[in-house]
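Lab notebook, bench 4. Still working through the backlog of constructs that have no structural model yet. Next entry is a single chain of 124 residues. Request: give me the structure tokens for it.
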Amino acid sequence: AIAESMACGTAVVATRVGAIPELVADRETGLMVPPGDWEGMARAIVALLENDGQRRRLASRAAEVAKARFDRARMIEEYEKWYFEILRRRRQTTSAARPPPIGRRSQGFMGEGAERGLAGAEDR
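Model written out:
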């Protein structure tokens, strides 16, 4: 909900947990407080309510950052890069794990000449 709030141009007050510090830059796009500091959270909210200039500045910057980071075209491009990287790695893994054709094996998993032994089984 933080990214969405930023995209809507809302000044954010959040705690420094998980990935939140990657989204909210303290005093640039919102205000950060330590986890569990409910009094600090209340002070930050009151400060924004009482200071229109700071609230508008943080909200405006939050919207700019969110638009740049979460723009639809940019997100599509990032997902495409990620998918192509997964495909590239998968192709490398599967081609490296794929055994050579039977006729070209020097020694199969059952030993030298296993193909001849199976072929001769029809005659028994």
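Notes after review: The beta strands are 12-15, 30-33. The radius of gyration is 30 Å. Flag for follow-up if needed.
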